Amino acid sequence: MSSSSADRSRPPLRQAVTRLLPAPSVLGFLVLLVALGMLSYAAGTAVGPVAPGLRPGVTRTGESTPDDGDMGGMHGMGAGAPRPVPVGAAR
Q1: How far apart are alpha carbons 35 and 27 in whole angstroms?
Q2: What angle do CA 64, 65, 67 make, to 5 degrees?
Q3: What is the rounded CA–CA span in Å between residue 80 and residue 77?
Q4: Which residue has the higher pLDDT, 32 or 57?
Q5: pTM of the full predicted structure?
Q6: Which residues contact 91 (CB under 8 A, 6 or more apart)?
Q7: Count of beta carbons in the 10 Å neighbourhood of residue 53
Q8: 58-66: which pairs have CB atoms within 8 A and are 24 or more residues apart?
Q9: What is the enclosing helix (H) or strand (E) of 77?
Q10: What is the C-alpha separation between 9 and 90, in angstroms, rounded?
Q11: Average pLDDT over the chain, rounded to whole?
Q12: Residue 9 and residue 26: Cα distance in Å, rounded?
């Protein structure tokens, strides 16, 4: 039995799939991007939290925070008024 003309004009499945996929360089870039993302996630998980007591999704209640922007424990860090330098003094 002979095949119909519709079967002859249809491209093979492999050509159709190849036509729909992006260029190999784009696929390589995406694979590299996913691999680097997984590597950075694994490294972050292995290292642990950034600061002691820092956990995602944990909110602390009952603690008062200063409203004046003071960070606490940073005494003497404020910038005072500049002092005039006498003429001829070493800098």
Answers
A1: 12
A2: 125
A3: 9
A4: 32
A5: 0.41
A6: 85
A7: 7
A8: none
A9: none
A10: 91
A11: 75
A12: 30
Residues with Cβ < 8 Å from 49, sequence gap 6 or more? 55
Q: Quote the CA–CA distance of 87 and 58 in Å, as a whole number.
A: 57
> 72: Cβ–Cβ under 8 A, 6 or more apart, which residues?
66
Which residue in 20, 42, 24 sits closest to 32, CA to CA? 24
State the DSSP string of 7-54. HHHSPPHHHHHHHHSPPHHHHHHHHHHHHHHHHHHHHHHHH--SSTT-
Place of tokens 């007591």: 53
Higher pLDDT, 60 or 88: 88
Q: Which two tokens stand for residue 73?
A: 């424990």
